[in-house]
Fold:
Amino acid sequence: MVKITHRVRYPPFDPSNLTPRKLPVVENQFEIDGPVIPPFRLGNENTWLVERVIDGDYEVDTEYHGETPQIIEKQRTGWYLLPHPIHAKARNFINYVVVILLFCLFYLFTTPIQSSIGLPTFGTGKIRLGLLDYPILAVIVVPLMITPIVLRVAANLGDLRRQKAFLANAPPNPNVTIMKTRSGDNLKGKIEFPKLLDEWTALKLYCRVGILPPARHKVFQALGKDPNGQPPPGLTTPLPHHWEKGLDDGTGMGEDAPMQRHDVPGGVFLRPMRIMSSSKSVSIDLGGGEFEIETPDGDWPGTLYGDLVRVHWELIASIERKKGGDLLWVEPLTIEHNKEATITDKIFISDGRTENDTR
Structure:
């Protein structure tokens, strides 16, 4: 029997506001009788961490991948759209508006002091709109505060319109053939599209690997927490109808993707993995053909699906269109493991928002 320990400190949604080393490491121990996949470590004890530890001598198994979780079928397989670029621009604009608002409040607060020492002030007068008087600065700041909301609403309406148009005329699935591949090797295969649409202009392929969120109920179980009680640090209280048991950690809660149709399982926007690395893209003929893609940056284990540790590989075909943004076809990959231990100290972390996934 070989003793195996999985240790995970997975970045929650929008992890930039949290200090990794202050959050608990979730551990799960089990034993296996027979060959096992080699150990690996992504990150370190002071950052976000995904680790597989093997205690004792073991025989290597490079082809074990585990049972595919439902998150792959529901959220990472098939056709996907890219959100409207206004979403990301409006969110960044909000940061500047907040700074302007705080500056104006501070300026109004210190206006009496400025007047007492003889400094000239401006914008502190009043302007009449209708039957009420308003500070002049409010007339400037309030429209700035409302603008990002209006932009997001407009972008959401545009996304819903694009989703409706796409679902009414979805192209047939491509035929994808992938050669047997081990982690660290170039990905080789062939892709063919049975039908090309007139609006398609170019085709690029790339692959990426990352860590999917651990199952929320397993995190609570490993930490000895009551699923209906206070969540551990880094996790939020799940909202009704926004989280399904075993699907993810439940921390996105509707913010990870823009407004989308709920009659499509998993939605039509591809959520980025919060720990992820992408390869360079390669251009091929629009109708498809054979391809060879370099492996993503860093050392990664092969495909592995478990309750806490989920190493996922995928091929993405990005189709440029004349209008409506790029169209993505996502094909899950089964990649074999290396025979040796895999260690990557530096890992790329994303906030989990679809609108920020530029690839």
User: Anything to note?
Assistant: The chain has a mean pLDDT of 87. Residues 80 and 270 are 6 Å apart (CA to CA). Residues 87-165 form one domain.
